[in-house]
Amino acid sequence: MKISSIASELNSLAYHGRGIIIGKSADGKKAVTAYFIMGRSVNSRNRVFVAEGDAMRTKAFDESKMVDPHLIIYYPVRVLGNKTIVTNGDQTDTIYELMDKQMTFEQALRTREFEDDKPNFTPRISGIIHHEKGDMNYAMSILKSAEGDDSSCERFTYAYSNPIAGRAKFIHTYNGDGNPLPSFEGEPKTLELPDMDIDALTDLIWTNLNEDNKVSLFVRYIDLATGEADTRIVNKNA
C-alpha cells in the first residue's frame, strides 16, 4: 500500500476540488478530520467557512457577488451525538436526519446521487467519524456518475474499524483540472498523519494547497477519551 505525505499528495494536483481527510492521530488519542474547498470560478471562490456551534457552514464572502447558491452554500459539518459528519454538499443534512431516524450512513446516502452540475456531475464525497470508549471508527463514501453518464450512479463506501494511529484516508472530488472535470477514481488514498498539534496540521494542509485555487479549510481534533473537540478554520477571504 502506498503511504503518502500530506505535502506530496496535496502538491500532486493543482485542483482537487473538495477534499476530506479522516484518521487517527499519531499518539492514538484523537480523531482527526479536515475538509477543504477549492474553486475556479468567481462564484466558487466567493465563500468562507463559518463555525455554528459544533457545526460548520459555508457562507458568501461578498453577498453582492453571489450568483447561484445552489451546490455551494451548505453545512459541510454536523454532529449527531458521538458522530461527526463531514461532506461536500447538502447530503450532510440527509445523513444527519436519516441517521437520527436509525438509518445507517450507507442507507442515508442511497437516497442521494452526484451533483447536477452538468457536464462535471461532481461526485458527492462524505465521511463519518464514530467515537466511543476511547476509540474510533469511520467511513467514507463517494457517489459518482458512471463515465459521465448522468443516468447511472456508482456508489462506493469504505469503512475503517480500529484505524492505525498516525494514518489517515483522503478522498477528493476531482483528479485534476479539465473540462469536464475528471472525477476521483479508486479507493481513498492513505496519508501519514505526523505527530503534531492542530495548529501545525492546519498550517501544513493550508500551505500545501494550490495558492490560486484554495478557498477555505476546516480542521478538527476530537479527544477520544473525553469527546471534546478542537477546531480551526482558515479562509482565504478573511
> In the CATH hierarchy, what is the architecture at level 2?
4-Layer Sandwich
Highest CATH level, the class: Alpha Beta
Classify the helix fraction into a percent range: 10-25%
| Main sheet: strand order | 1-12-11-2-3-13-14
| Large-scale geometry | globular
Low-confidence stretches: none
Instruction: Note the total helix count.
Output: 5
Indicate the mean pLDDT.
96
Radius of gyration, in angstroms, nearest whole number: 17 Å
Helix-strand makeup class: mainly beta
Summarize the structure in short.
This protein has 238 residues and is mainly beta. It has helices spanning 6-10, 42-45, 91-99, 105-109, 198-208, and strands at residues 3-4, 18-24, 30-38, 47-52, 55-60, 77-80, 83-87, 124-132, 135-146, 149-161, 167-172, 189-192, 214-223, 229-235. The strands form three sheets. Strands 1-12-11-2-3-13-14 form a seven-stranded mixed β-sheet. A five-stranded antiparallel β-sheet has the order 6-7-8-9-10. It has a two-stranded antiparallel ribbon with strand order 4-5.
Task: Furnish the topology, listing elements before pairings.
Layout: E1 3-4, H1 6-10, E2 18-24, E3 30-38, H2 42-45, E4 47-52, E5 55-60, E6 77-80, E7 83-87, H3 91-99, H4 105-109, E8 124-132, E9 135-146, E10 149-161, E11 167-172, E12 189-192, H5 198-208, E13 214-223, E14 229-235
Parallel strand pairs: 1-12
Antiparallel strand pairs: 2-3, 2-11, 3-13, 4-5, 6-7, 7-8, 8-9, 9-10, 11-12, 13-14
Can you describe this structure?
- The chain is mostly beta strands.
- The chain has one domain: Glutamine Phosphoribosylpyrophosphate, subunit 1, domain 1 (4-Layer Sandwich), CATH 3.60.20.20.
- The protein has five helices and 14 strands.
- It has helices at residues 6-10, 42-45, 91-99, 105-109, 198-208; strands spanning 3-4, 18-24, 30-38, 47-52, 55-60, 77-80, 83-87, 124-132, 135-146, 149-161, 167-172, 189-192, 214-223, 229-235.
- Strands 1-12-11-2-3-13-14 form a seven-stranded mixed β-sheet. Strands 6-7-8-9-10 form a five-stranded antiparallel β-sheet. Strands 4-5 form a two-stranded antiparallel sheet.
- It is globular.
- The model has no long low-confidence stretch (mean pLDDT 96).
